[in-house]
Amino acid sequence: QVDVAAMVQLFGYVDVTDSGFIVAVLSITFNPLFWNVVARWEHKTRALSQVFGSPHAACYCLGAAILVLNCVRSHCFTEAMKSQPKLEGWDCHWTYYSGLAISAVGTLFVVSSFLALGFTGTFLGDYFGILMEEKVTSFPFSVLDNPMYWGSTAIYLGWSLMHASPAGLLLTAVVAISYTIAVLYEG
């Protein structure tokens, strides 16, 4: 059985009505919704490819938009954490370095996914008709399904631990839920 008392106590530190927290939740949930809707629309209409003159140019523009949105999401996440109280018992070297290690593993998964897939493979090129010659099965795909999503989630988890932030932990759960829904939608 799960001891919900600890979770209730932990999240008693989080003001979910704080405007910064709400903006962070909205930016977290918007990103995968945006890229999935735009990619499916492109797949059905080829409208972006027509506007940009080629599927590659359109994919690169969508990829750039996704990167900008990810920067906005990370900024909102960080600002929401900074505006909420820390969990004093976690504000120590052990938690900080554990978070740093988790973020490093997450970064390894994200970067190695990008290197294995390339820009168009990472940023939905298949929806633009830009197909890879074969399915990527090398690391990190040999270790984990959707390593970019779970690596990104690990980065946010580590960041939250580094800041001893209950709000960050709750926002990381929102990231994980958003990616889980995205995986179901994409599958």
Protein model, in words:
This protein is mainly α. It has one domain (4-186). The chain is 73% helix and 0% strand. It has seven helices and no strands. It has helices at 4-11, 19-45, 47-52, 55-82, 93-122, 147-162, 166-186. Helix 2 (19-45) runs parallel beside helix 7 (166-186) and helix 4 packs antiparallel against helix 7. The chain is globular. The two termini are 31 Å apart. The mean pLDDT is 93.
SSE blueprint and pairings:
Blueprint: H1 4-11, H2 19-45, H3 47-52, H4 55-82, H5 93-122, H6 147-162, H7 166-186
Helix pairs in contact: 2-4, 2-7, 4-7, 5-6, 6-7
Number of strands: 0
The number of helical runs is 7
**Percent of residues in β-strands:** under 5%
Mean pLDDT: 93
How do the helices and strands follow one another from N- to C-terminus? Answer: HHHHHHH
Q: Residue share in helices?
A: over 70%
Low-confidence stretches: none
Structural class: mainly alpha
Radius of gyration (CA) equals 18 Å
Shape summary? globular
Give a short account of the largest sheet: none
Straight-line distance between termini: 31 Å
When the domains are counted, the total is 1
